Structure formats: structure tokens, C-alpha cells
Amino acid sequence: MGVKKAIVEILAANASLVALVGKRLQPRENPQNADFPRITFHRLSTEYQYLCQGQGQCRTVVETFEIAALSRSDLDAENVADEIIDSLPRNGTYGSISLDRVDVVNRSDVTEFPVYENHLPVPADVLTVEFQYEEDC
Fold first, then answer.
1. CB count, 10 Å around CB of 68?
2. CB within 8 A of 130, min separation 6: which ones?
3. 26, 57, 124, 127: least surrounded by Cβ within 10 Å?
4. pLDDT tens by residue, the chain, 137 residues
5. Using CA atoms, how far apart are residues 129 and 101, in angstroms rounded to an integer?
6. Which value, to the nearest 10 degrees, does the dihedral of the CA atoms of residues 66, 71, 77, 80 take?
7. Phi first, then psi: what are they for 54, rounded to 5°?
């Protein structure tokens, strides 16, 4: 399991968040005629740090994701983002990935311009989140 699947598993486990967004949690952009509120996410970057331990070489991986809470109002987007933050663990194991560190490193209010029939701007609360784990030697 990669970080993308871990994000879905982590967020889907929060009943309060699911009550707000239902199954509207997906990577990348909003589909046309999307319902709100919803969550989208995508990877911004992946950083590798190589470590030598005994005979093998391990690496620490930091994957940075942007997780956006989109809604029809600023307050709803903020409430969804608060639930996302409450959902994120400091660490833990999800499938085959053991996260050593999960940190929200930035939060911003923006207006997204999704592609759907009305082309109306959508308020969003955007989180930048780092997920750190080690790959085996």
C-alpha cells in the first residue's frame, strides 16, 4: 500500500468526516458536476534520504501531498479541513506502509476554479501534509 491508499484509509475511518463528504474523496481534480463538499488530493513531491546501516542501504522517504477540502462556502470548507487534520495520525501502520511521521506543514484558504458546467469558483481550504516512512534495506 502506498501513501495515496493510506490517505484514503485514514480519512475514510473518520465517521465525522464521512458524514460531511460521504464518498467524495479522490485523487486529482474534481469530476464534472461534482457534489460538495468533497476532498481531493495529489502528491506534490517525493524526497529521498539514503542511509547506510550495516550491510544494506535504507532510505527515508518524505512524500508531500496537497489535500484540498472543497465546498460551496468558506465555513464548510474550513470544517472539512478541520476534520481532515483531526483524522491524520502522528504515525502508524496502514497496509504495508509504516508511517514514521505525518505533519500538516501549511494550510491556506484559496478559491479553486474547477471545470464543471457552471465554471463557478469554489472555496477551498488546502493542506500541505508530509508523510515520512522508511523503505527496507
1. 23
2. 62, 63, 64, 65, 101, 102, 103, 105
3. 57
4. 689 999 999 999 999 999 999 989 888 766 666 788 999 999 999 999 887 666 666 889 999 999 999 988 899 999 999 999 999 999 999 888 899 999 999 999 887 655 454 566 778 899 999 999 988 75
5. 10
6. -80
7. 60, -125
Q: In angstroms, rounded to a whole number, what is the distance separating the alpha carbons of residues 49 and 42?
A: 21
Name the grid cell of 44: 506534490
Q: What is the pTM of this model?
A: 0.87
Instruction: Tell me the three cell numbers of residue 8.
Output: 484514503
Torsion of CA 112, 71, 84, 106, to 10 degrees: 30
Q: Which amino acid is it at 34?
A: A
